[in-house]
Write a structure and sequence with these properties.
Blueprint: H1 4-10, H2 15-30, H3 33-40, H4 42-49
Helix pairs in contact: 1-2, 2-4
Region (Disordered): 1-20
Biased composition (Basic and acidic residues): 9-20
C-alpha cells in the first residue's frame, strides 16, 4: 500500500484504478469521513488510505 501514493502522484495510467480502490477501502473503514478528505485534497486521501 505504501507504493499507492507514489503511483497516484506520478499520474500514471494505473493511478486512477488504484485511487478508486483506495477510496473504496477508506470509505469502508471511515464512512462519511472520506468526503471531508476529498475536499481537503487527493494527496491527503491517498496517505490516509495507505
Amino acid at each position: 500500500m505504501s507504493s499507492l501514493p507514489v503511483t497516484a502522484h506520478r499520474g500514471e495510467p494505473d493511478a486512477a484504478p488504484d485511487r478508486a480502490r483506495a477510496e473504496m477501502r477508506y470509505e469502508g473503514m471511515h464512512g462519511r469521513a472520506v468526503a471531508d478528505v476529498r475536499d481537503a485534497g487527493h494527496r491527503v486521501d491517498d496517505r490516509s488510505a495507505a
